[in-house]
Amino acid sequence: MRKPSNALSRYHRVSAGTEEARFLTANNFPVDFDLDAPLSDLWSIHDDAMSDFHRAYRSDMSDRSDRSDRSDQPEIGKKPAGKSLLNLKIKIADRMLENCNFCDRRCGANRKKGEKGYCRLGAVSRYSSEFLHYGEEPELVPSHTVFLAGCVFSCVYCQNWEISTHPDLGIPILPEDVARIAATRRALGARNLNFVTPTPHLHTILRILAEMRVNTPIVWNSNMYHSEEAAKLLCGVVDVYLGDFKYGNDGCAKRYSNAPHYWDTVTRNFLCAYDDSEILLRQLVLPGHIECCTAPIIDWVCDHIPDVRFNLMFQYSPAYLAYRYPEIARSLTDGECEQASRLLAESGLYSE
Ligand code: SF4
Q1: CA-atom Rg of the chain in angstroms
Q2: Which of 96, 97, 104, 105 to mutate to test the pocket of ligand 1 (most atoms within 8 A of CB)?
Q3: Which H helix or E strand runs over 281?
């Protein structure tokens, strides 16, 4: 089994407190901009700032990797005197909300004026629960997991369909409150802050991060169906993309999640995430979908983003509307689990 040199290594340093989470760096990175500037101008400033950020960040990383002593603690919680890169990202996300294109549906709802998009969400973000989660991958637990309401997918086998289809049942989020809770959970041993189903809440999550003074890695626990613009805002902020790669073709994605142009969107976002940060990739094995989904996904990952931690997941069970789709209205067989495991083992990808 090939073990990549950098899979989640930086995450572990941030989690241990010997390196700074990226949102803190972005919040300390000064960027000047006019709050009333047109969106196109804000994007130009953002793209220039990100070039500078990456230059500074990568040189800072190489300085750090030269040091043998990693016991130095980063200086946490400095508030920039003026505006920061994170402030600029918040401003752009706020403008995007007027014609929403956070996800690749790009449905254009004016969520600031109360319109709701396909995800059934307006401007107010809500969560269904937050707690120290011990059921995630071993590297992540205990994980301070915030389950956000609503979803940009419509998976027929959704296990959280009550909250994904009725986001109004969730608890409204005040960013400063969630930031305070995150500090408490971190003090109680959380190894990270893990936002689940985050895409339609991008504007709120950036605001939460701007309120946070505690050093903790940020986990973007997502279906990776965000837009190209959202991906640009995530760059420099997310420490780990905990990304689902469910389908190996557009037909299966349309049938089971009503997600058009799935393959191009998700592969584009994984490539961007790979360039930006670290990835823990999840592949939920579906009954009868090893040849059409699991196998091509493993092949693509091998060819394009080989240095990821790959988690093959076997916990599928037919929930919600799955009974209407006879081919997936059952659990996996032992033979299917073995077949998928064999494909992954033969690929040489890092899986534990
Ligand atoms: S996040 Fe929601 S409102 Fe925004 S584009 Fe996607 S489905 Fe539409």
Answers
A1: 20
A2: 105
A3: strand 278-284
- Give the Å distance between the CA of 201 and the centre of ligand 1: 9
In a domain, 27, yes or no: no
311 is a domain residue: yes
Mutate to test the pocket of ligand 1, among 95, 115, 118 (most ligand atoms within 8 A of CB): 118
pLDDT per residue over 142-192, tens digit each? Answer: 999 999 999 999 999 999 898 899 999 999 999 999 999 999 999 999 999
User: Which domain does 147 fall in, by range?
Assistant: 9-22+121-347
Q: Could you tell me if the CB of 198 is within 6 A of ligand 1?
A: no
Q: Is the CB of 123 under 6 A from ligand 1?
A: no
Asked if residues 173 and 121 have their Cβ atoms less than 8 Å apart, the reply is no
How many domains does the chain contain in total? 1
| Structure tokens belonging to residue 311 | 């988690």
Whole-structure pTM over 0.90, yes or no?
yes
The DSSP annotation for 177-233 comes to HHHHHHHHHHHTT-S-EEEES-GGGHHHHHHHHHH--S---EEEEE-S-B-HHHHHH
For ligand 1, atom 6, the nearest C-alpha belongs to: 103
pLDDT tens-digit series, residues 300-311: 999 999 999 999
- Degrees, nearest 5: CA angle 258-314-159: 45
Among protein residues, the one with the nearest Cα to ligand 1's atom 3 is: 117
107 Cβ inside 6 Å of ligand 1:
yes
Q: Is the CB of 319 under 6 A from ligand 1?
A: no
In whole angstroms, how far apart are CA 286 and each of 151, 265, 348?
Answer: 20, 20, 22
Q: Determine if ligand 1 sits within 6 Å of the CB of residue 201.
A: no
24-35 pLDDT tens trace: 999 999 999 999
Which atom of ligand 1 lies nearest, measured to the CA of 106?
A: 5
CA angle 99, 199, 120 (to 5 degrees): 65
CATH code, 270: 3.20.20.70
- Residue 51 is assigned to a structural domain of this protein: no
102: in domain = no
State the SS3 of 259-278. CCCHHHHHHHHHHHHHHHCE
Do the beta carbons of residue 286 and residue 316 sit within 8 Å?
yes
